[in-house]
Every structure is written in structure tokens, then in C-alpha cells.
Amino acid sequence: MKLQIIVGSVREGRTAIKVANWLLSEIQSYDYSTVETEIVDLKEWNLPIFVGAHPPLTGIYDQPKQQDWADKIASGDAFIFISPEYNHGYSAALKNAFDYIGKEWSGKPAAYVGYGATNGSRSIDQIRQVGTQLGLVDTNSTIEIRDIFARNKGETFEPNEFDSKALKAAFKKLLQYVSA
Description:
Blueprint: E1 2-7, H1 16-29, E2 36-41, H2 42-45, H3 66-74, E3 78-84, H4 92-99, E4 109-115, H5 121-133, E5 137-145, H6 161-179
Parallel strand pairs: 1-2, 1-3, 3-4, 4-5
């Protein structure tokens, strides 16, 4: 299984990359030889706002980076999406990444990590709605990080026991859906 951790924030000083690094390290510590995990950072991808003439669900990709993005997502078997909550929603960069392509998301299981106001629950709710429309398989696995501002003062994210337990459960569900 190839698991992609999608970092849905591109802001300076962002927490999402710290959370992604924790997820990667924790998942690698599970020592599953059949799982390859990678961080897919939207800041590095720097996808322009989608302005294409063809809806991505047509599979006609004529925008810069669109085919490369499609190839990257097609190579994944499952996803963990990380997003802060901005104004009761999720990040525009993540929405754009979803909208950039179509069929490559379909049929693949997803888990969600949110933080911020309401511990990210509203951002996760919206991501799940869009993901379902794109054909992602909702594993009903969420990690809502509490007290993010108190635990994000250093160079790394400091998980608590609840975060670690929720991640392990989400990971197991992703494995079940991929092997089903």
C-alpha cells in the first residue's frame, strides 16, 4: 500500500507540516513492510488556481501541472488529509488540489486530520463532503487535534495519547479498506 499524507496548508509557519512529520514518523514506527508512506506537500506543488476550460472529471488535463498532479495522486492507494480550520472551513489550497483532477481520487480510502477552532471538526466535515463527491472512500477516521496552539510552540508537533490512539485506529482502517 502506498499511503500519501496530503499537507493541506501552504502558509508560512504552518502547523500542518509538523503534524505531517509526526504522522510519517508514527506510521513508520508501526513497521509494516507492505506500506510505503510519503508526505505530499501542497506548498511544494504550488498548484495554480484551477482555471481550465474542461471540468477535471472529463479527464482532459490541459493546465500546467495538472497531469503531473494526476499522476502523483493516481500513484497513491490511500490518503490522510491534514487541514487547519480557516473561517469554519478548510484551506483553499486543499480545495484547489481536490478540484485540479477527477478520477484519480475515486475508490481510494481516506482519513482526515484537522486542528484549530472546534479542533478542526468543521474543516473535516467539509473535506469529507467534497471527498465523497470525488469518489473517495470515507473510512470514518478522523483525528481532531485539541489544544493545537498550546502544543505547537516548538519545532515539532507534540501529540498526546489520544492523537496517537486515533492515528493507529485510522491507519488500521485504511489498511482494511485497501486490502478489501
